Amino acid sequence: MLVTLTIKNFALIDNLQVSFKDGLTAITGETGAGKSILLGGISLILGKRADLSSIKNSDEKCVIEASFAINNYNLEGFFKANDLDFEKQTIIRREILPSGKSRAFINDTPVTLDVLSSLGVQLIDIHSQHQTLQLTDNNFQFQVVDAVAGNGVVLNDYSEKLSKYHHTKKELKKLIDFQQEADKEYDYNSFLLQELQSVNLKEGMLEELEAAYEKLNNVEEITENVSHALQVLGEEQIGTLSGLNELKNIFNKLSHFGESYKELSTRVQSVLIELDDIYVEIQRIEENLEADPQQLEEVNTKLQLLYSLQKKHNVLEINELLQVQEELAEKVSKTENLEAEIKERQLKLLKQEEELDALATKIHQQREKSIPALKTHLENVLSEVGMPNAQFKLDLVATNKYFVNGKDELHFLFSANKGGSFNELKKVASGGELSRIMLAIKSLLAQYMQLPTIMFDEIDTGVSGEVSTKMGGIMHEMSKTMQVFTITHLPQVAAKGDVQFKVFKEDKGGITASQIKQLTEDERVQEIAEMLGGKDVSSSAMAHAKELLLKKV
């Protein structure tokens, strides 16, 4: 509920501070006194865009601040989601600087207008004749029916499942679209993949093939040099091994003449062993050397194929070709498995549709059950407020479409006169009738929902007498479970208020400013008497005013 309101340097207001309580608060005052200015200030607190022309003194900033008791509003989640400090007594401040820049704060934390607006709609509902157009909105009509039907929990469940359903549907469409494109490329990708797989790619194979090609392509030169090497090492008379053997024998004879000869003998022996091993290895190489034109051709063919594949796929390394092969394999596999994936998504979609249908059926049944009680309540209230022949016809039609709130279409039809035909509210209800219908609906919603503070801005325009008394009574009944404000010109409505404030203008130093004050009981009698009979208050008007105040409840 709104606890305090402070307005500085806004329109005709210099500095205004006012405190409010729960129950029904009536706000009265002459036309032009500044009631709309008061509402304008509250609207800024609720997130309305600022206008530089709203500043009274253009050299100073405009500040509007309000405190709200929000302990029972279940807003902890909102504050956490927006990284705000939750306070049971939350303070909202709005500043308009002389430069035109606007700033907003919730509990001293700067916020955007979107955040402020999102919080504002959960704190105060300002209702004027203009806003009765909300009545003609089909979504609002559904909200009314669902509130009476108690569909809140099942609608949340439906909404979550509908979101998942749309996600699955989107996934399925992407798969089908991908399949259409993939089918066109499948044959080509399969050919490229088979081409790469036929080579049995592995890292290092290009280097191996190039080495093999060099060997096979130069086998005669290699053979000639290997034979010469064997000659150098193994020639019986002048070969290196023969000389080393003779050297070994010499140092064997010398080894017992001293340690240095023995060491040389050991070293010669070591060299001889290593060289002998080299000789055997060269012999093995020679034995394996032979010209093989067929193998050379095979190696060359494979090399040329690799070079061709590298050029085709615009890569330089075998590991890059392997990566291309992996990507192609993934594309081909995905295409081959698409049918199964699509079928899986289709089955998932069917299951989700079954769940949604079950919830939509439950929503529909609960709506159908609630409609007679809703219709009766509205017609009874409207009869009390001067519309005895008002009738409603609510047609609920189940469809095959998934809407955000179920599968129903709702036709909210109205007839104001006996024997009149039913039609849409916006076509047959006048502004005054819409105001009374909205009051009836809000009074009903107050029984089923935790509504925010509500402000009725001259909703009683165009009515008088007993009807206005009934409207005031409805507002007073609503105020037993919520904070209600009514801005009114009707004494019968003002008298129903638990408290009454008067908005008025006063001149100070040649400057006109708007003020607001809470009226005492005597001041209320005077104010209501003036509302009844004008400035020249008669004794009968005073008596009537006292009578109205006594019949508050």
Automatic annotation (TrEMBL):
One of its GO terms (molecular function) is ATP binding. It comes from the Bacteria. Belongs to the RecN family. The keyword GTP-binding does not apply. One of its GO terms (biological process) is DNA repair. GO terms for cellular component: bacterial nucleoid. Pfam families: SMC_N (PF02463). May be involved in recombinational repair of damaged DNA. Keywords: ATP-binding, Coiled coil, DNA damage, DNA repair, Nucleotide-binding. InterPro entries: DNA_recomb/repair_RecN, P-loop_NTPase, RecF/RecN/SMC_N. Residues 2-509 form the RecF/RecN/SMC N-terminal domain. Residues 199-226, 318-369 form a coiled coil. This is DNA repair protein RecN. It comes from Galbibacter orientalis DSM 19592.
